Structure formats: structure tokens, C-alpha cells
Amino acid sequence: MDNNGAKKTLSDLLAVMAALRTPGTGCPWDLQQTFATIAPYTIEEAYEVADAIARGDVAHLKDELGDLLLQVVYHARMAEEQGAFAFADVVDAITAKMIRRHPHVFGSAEQRAAGAAPGFWERAKAAEKDETAAAGVLDGVPTALPALTRAIKLQSKAAKVGFDWPSLAPVLAKLKEELAELEEVIDARSTPARPSGSDSSSDAVAEEFGDLLFVIANVARHLKLDPEAALRAANAKFIRRFRYIEARLAADGRAPSDSDLAEMDALWDEAKTKGL
Question: What's the pTM value of the predicted model, to 2 decimals?
Fold first, then answer.
């Protein structure tokens, strides 16, 4: 690779990864990595891309997309070393899939004239599945997805075959029901007959809490909201308001540990009135 100032290319990146993974001359850390050890970084980089988009930071997005591309190159290189596939095969497969799933763009004159009918993407995906395989309605939803996102996808698949409430109202009613059940098991575990630290009481609380989160995901689905995005926004709001509390206390030469809940709660309300 030359260093004359010319912009690096995808070929350069592939060569860098090959060099990093070359036994004897490569990077010891990179040589030790496997699909399993790199996978968490892949997920993390995808989240950082989403974060840059949410913040409207296009300059940072460029860097994060590069980090995410590196993950694809990394996995492809390890697969090539095993004789499974190479980066070119990844590109070939996704390009063919995109062409196949968009006949209204790449198909015959008749297909292009017909346009994109509603549900075309789902039908194209279904057509690609092995029809001889016995697949359930909920198959194909990756277990590694964030739990709230996976809940939405599972619910959406069930809804396609009619297993869904017709409107938001019964979902909200179910939300209240699950909250009441959570309160019930929390109260029950504090009774003398069931010590608060018992495994059975903790399991019951965890189960009811999970049910509550699942219904909250269903509320988001009926509202056509992304629960992960909504929670990220809530996290950002919490950070803004708590930093306001820290700044107000710092102006008085104090830290949160020098305050109390009543004072910090009042400062929280103050931050809220300021639109933070």
C-alpha cells in the first residue's frame, strides 16, 4: 500500500486485516481472536453507529461506519482462513439478495412497471426459505438481538397470523394487569411465610417483571415506536438533568454525595422546567 496521500480503498483495508492475521508477523492480539470474541465488538459498533445517527453527528457517523465495516472485514477474513468464504463472497451474496428482493427496480419491464406492492419484502424473504424445512411462525428471530427489539419482532410475527390485540386499549389494560401482578409478587415475598431472599420469590418477581417489559414492548409496537430508541432518549434526558444537578451543586462547592434526595429532586424539577 502506498503512503502518498491517496485515499485508502477497500482493497487496502482487506490487506491490512490480512497482515494483522498473518502468523509470525501479524498482531498477537488479532491472531488470538475468533468469531465469538469479535462478535461483542460487532454489536457494540452497530450501537455506536445508531448513537451517531441519533445525535445527528454526521462526522462521527463516518468514523463509526468505518469501525462497523472493519467488523465485516474481520469476520470475513477469519472465515477465509477456515476455507468457508471470503469477503468477495459476502459482497456477492448481499448484492444478489438485494437484486432478487427488488424486482420492481432490477426485474423485467413488467415487474418494474408493477412497482413495489405492499409486503413485497416479507414475501421475497419467505420465498427464499427452504420450503421443505419445518419452520414455526416465530423462527428466524435472532436470539442475540436486544431483548426489547426481539420482543417486537416476535410479536410482529405472531400478529401476522392473527395473534394480536385489535387496538391499543386492550394492550394498555394488559399493562395494568401485569403491573398489578408484579406488585402482588413483590408484596408476597415480604411476608413471613416467604422470606424475601428465597429463590422462588426472586424468580417470581423476575418473571413478572419480564412479563411487564414484554407488554411494554407490545405497547411500543402498537404505537409504531422503537422501544430501544425511546429508552435511549430517556437515558439521554436522565443524563442531561442529572448533570444539571451536578452543575448546580458544584456552583455551591458541593457534590451530589454532599446533598440529599429532597434537594436533588427539587433541582431535577428545576432542570425539567428549563426544558432539559
Answer: 0.64
Cβ atoms of 151 and 214 within 8 Å: the answer is yes
Please report whether residue 110 resides in a domain.
no
- In the three-class reduction of DSSP (H, G, I as helix; E, B as strand; rest coil), residue 18 is classed as helix
CATH number at residue 174: 1.10.287.1080
Q: For 21, what's the count of Cα atoms within 13 Å in the CB-facing half-sphere?
A: 18
Spatial contact of 94 and 34, defined as CB atoms under 8 Å apart:
no
Alpha helix (H) ranges present in 82-226? 87-100, 103-106, 109-114, 120-128, 147-160, 168-188, 199-222
In terms of residue numbers, what domain contains 203? 147-225
Q: Does a structural domain hold residue 169?
A: yes
How many independent structural domains does the chain possess? 3
pLDDT (tens digit, 9 = 90+) per residue, 247-263? 999 999 999 999 999 99
Rounded to 10°, the helix 199-222/168-188 angle is 170
